[in-house]
Amino acid sequence: MIFLGKGTLVRQLIHGFISIALRLFFRRIEAANIENVPKNGAVLFVLNHPNGLVDPGLVFVSLPRRVSFLAKSTLFDIPVGGFLLRTFEILPVYRRVDAAGDMTKNQQTFRNCYELLAQGRCIAIFPEGISHNETKLQPMKTGAARIALGALGYDLEEKRREGKVEKTTETQSLKTGDSSPDTGKNDAFNLKIMPVGLYYTSKTAFRSEALIRYGEAFDVEPVELDENGEPPREKVLRLTAKIETALRDITLNLETEKELETVVKAEALFSSVYENLIFKKTLTQSFQRLQDLAGKYKLLGENEPEKMRQLGEKVTEYENKLKNSGLTVESLSVLDHPTAYVFRYLILRLLVLILLAPFAIVGAIIHSPAYLISSVIGLMFKTHGTDEAGSTYKILAACVFMPLTWIVAAGIVFYFYGWQFALLSLPLTIFCGYIALRSTETLIDMSVWLKSAWLLFSRRALFLRLLVQRKTLQKEIGEFIEE
Questions:
Q1: Torsion on CA atoms 170, 174, 179, 185, rounded to nearest 10
Q2: Domain ranges in the chain?
Q3: CATH number belonging to domain 2-248
Q4: pLDDT in tens, 236-268
Q5: Residue 29: which H helix or E strand, with range?
Q6: What is the pTM of this model?
């Protein structure tokens, strides 16, 4: 992600900083189908918006192209935030939901978008218009469609003024829908819209996982603008509907939290036999299974609601049994690996943990205050206006308090031992913090497998009964998918 930085040196440095911050917050970040992104030409990226400023941050650092975002105007009022937004050529959007939101100022923002797209640049926009905590896409605003159609129409108008396009021919071709090589369609620059879906295993949990899915790009047909420079309303609504369909194809959409919880549990049950003891399957595989299950779950609810209720109850009941035993569906897979492999896995990691324990303990002690403060800030400030922002505040707080921790630690060393040791303490403190982070994760992973191994030897009948029940549920869910 760091080497994808584009633009000025300041922009690239901030790009690298954001990349590291996100990579430390998330245990795994996966970008799927990034090869679909056009290498050149104008592209309008449309994204779902579940997680505040984390959403544009992930797309910003994962894209192989330089991209400008549209962001709500109130963010520009933050002193440091405003500077960063302008550094990255982010354009303000004035919304009705924001206090003192002057909608008329959007005309200039739209004009800036037209000019950027005409130059073959990329723009990213969140058509839902708000960051939210819902389990499905919110109604689409028309801004994305208006920008796309307006950019093409504006470009044609400019070419007319320069005498590059015959107005009569252009108007007739667009009105009749003729797409021959002589029509105005080919006189405008080529603009593509690409949907981008964002999915988080947990939006606010530290060391959760994030998936960025790039969909299929599609072309935008130019239209005639009216006397006010606006595209026809019916064309705007049609393109907005097309954008919504494209976004639904690459996002997870369920009606309620309960449905989402059931689908997530069912997916974990169905695909809980992994190739190794740490990482399992790709996030893309998990998401595709979730999306498939969500679609089938909706159909089942419409056609056989009683069967759907029974399946949900079975999954929940089994999850409760596992929880009471201190296990997870993954840890039951201990029998799917040779004993020597499991033993070697546990022993080797235990030895590594013992060797690194002094660094991990020091790192945990030093960084605990900053971690706790960041977590509390994330809980205190869950929204920014009408938008979800818990993760955003948590990451921003960590970006402030973690470096402050390193500076304070170096200052203490400087006071007692001089500047040479203080300078040396900076990389050592960061290293200890990273070791503490990875050691904690390894301990959590190992504890799950140790509990499983202990239950296998101490209460073998219970372990095998849970294993059989898992296989029975896996079979039932598999049949459900095939049906």
A1: 60
A2: 2-248, 265-483
A3: 3.40.1130
A4: 999 999 999 999 999 999 888 888 888 888 777
A5: strand 26-32
A6: 0.85
